[in-house]
Amino acid sequence: MNTLRIAGGQVLRPDATVEDADVLVDRDEGTILDIGADLDADETLDAEGCLVTPGLVNAHCHVAMTLLRGYADDKPLDAWLREDIWPAEAALTPEDVRVGAELGLVEMIKSGTTAFADMYFHVPEVAAAVDEAGLRARLGHGVVTLGKDDEDARADIDESLDVAREFDGAADGRIRTAAMPHSLTTVAEDYLREFVADAHAEDIPVHYHANETTDEVDPIVDERGERPLSYAKELGMLTADDFLAHGVHVDDAEIDLLADAGTGVVHCPASNMKLASGMAPVQKLLDAGVTVGLGTDGAASNNDLDMFDEMRDAAMLGKLAAADASAVAAGDVVRMATAGSADAINLPGGALEVGGAADLAVVDLDAPHLTPANDLVSHLAYAARGSDVRHTVCDGRVLMRDREVLTLDEDAVMARASEAVASLRERV
Ligand SMILES: N[C@@H](CCSC[C@H]1O[C@@H](n2cnc3c(=O)[nH]cnc32)[C@H](O)[C@@H]1O)C(=O)O
Ligand SMILES: [Zn+2]
């Protein structure tokens, strides 16, 4: 057996307690063997003065959109997508998506994220980047049928199903997949019904954007006389395996539907604030027992992939939405960014426990903004930053040691991404 010891730190346990302990990892199996005192191992990662946390799980992203960071800001969702983002995306080559994904993965590793869910296109390139970088992911090809003829719409759906079949279990099992209709309004009803049924017939989960803006909710209510999530249920896309992004404008009946079905909701507070989409009723979702995860959405609507920022944003926005300072507390957002997200996207990780996945982040507490150590869960939620992460481990493999990313060449990736975007701007 080949073992790794994360030594001398404090460890955040699933019940939100913190204890002084080493974490012993089986590198061959990628699992945690023991959490305890003075454990011996083949290799040691120093965690003195640090908090060892579960790797953060970014449950909704478009990772290659790092290329469009700062490309178009300060617009509402619909205009932003139609006027800026979709025209630029139409010009992206597979090589662009590869380097954009690598850039995003470097950013994730450097901020303690070990797993994510991603909706994009040229997915084979995203999968190759994930394989190389060493993270876990649930990947899928996003489908839009609006504005497409029947042949193109069907080709898009076929590609989504083919990608889900082909890449499930890739990267030594670290990659899982989903079928990904973009949203309830950008994929037409007949296509959606067939797409979802075909995916579920092969046990492929479905991931989509829902109830993000009122512009997206109102047409469904006007045309169908029912709420979007009641429509989603009727289409069969509200099962325990499926998960949706946003869920901003959901009413009480829709919250009950989500809780009854066990469908995960991925809250994306920064994106919702930046696009002025609205405030998700996160405390209500939690109270109803809905599985709630946390995601950054793409870097063009955030504008980073730092899940520490996202935790703080979720807590702040959740309190505002509930008009209650006790709503969406520190422990709630830490759980959402770890176990909640892992649960929503159904990947291993999200908790440090014996027998569980060895996916973790080591946060350096020796910083003025993390002093004094009154409450480490509070610090994670409100005061820590991605740049406080010292080591990142996924599936038992060290992806970053002492802030040096070991699986990708950070400087080379940044240079290639800048070149790719210079060329993209000339083409668009
Ligand atoms: N195959 C589709 C692309 C779908 S990928 C997923 C899409 O979601 C877009 N996207 C990013 N953030 C959001 C959001 O917050 N809401 C809805 N769509 C988004 C992203 O730009 C990308 O085009 C096509 O032909 O256009
Ligand atoms: Zn999105």
What are the salient characteristics of this protein?
5'-methylthioadenosine deaminase activity, metal-binding, five-stranded parallel beta sheet, Metal-dep_hydrolase_composite, zinc, nine-stranded mixed beta sheet, EC 3.5.4.31, Urease, subunit C, domain 1, 428 residues, binds the ligand N[C@@H](CCSC[C@H]1O[C@@H](n2cnc3c(=O)[nH]cnc32)[C@H](O)[C@@H]1O)C(=O)O, 18 strands, 2 domains
Put the structure in a nutshell.
InterPro entries: Amidohydro-rel, Deaminase_MtaD/DadD, Metal-dep_hydrolase_composite, Metal_Hydrolase, MTA/SAH_deaminase. This protein is α/β, with parallel strands linked by helices and 428 residues long.
Task: Give your account of this protein's structure.
- With 428 residues, the protein is of the alpha/beta class.
- The protein has two domains: 3-54 and 351-405, Urease, subunit C, domain 1; 56-345, TIM Barrel (Alpha-Beta Barrel), CATH 3.20.20.140.
- It contains 14 helices and 18 strands.
- Strands 1, 2, 3, 4, 5, 15, 16, 17 and 18 form a nine-stranded mixed sheet that branches. Strands 6, 7, 8, 9 and 10 form a five-stranded parallel sheet that branches.
- The site of the ligand N[C@@H](CCSC[C@H]1O[C@@H](n2cnc3c(=O)[nH]cnc32)[C@H](O)[C@@H]1O)C(=O)O has 20 residues, from α1, β7 and β8.
- Ligand SIB binds next to α1, β7 and β8.
Beta strand %: 15-25%
Largest sheet geometry: 9 strands, mixed
Principal-axis shape equals globular
In this entry the ligands are:
ligand SIB, zinc ion
**Architecture per CATH nomenclature, i.e. the level-2 architecture of the largest domain:** Alpha-Beta Barrel
Helix/strand structural class:
alpha/beta
Tally of strands: 18
Structural domain count: 2
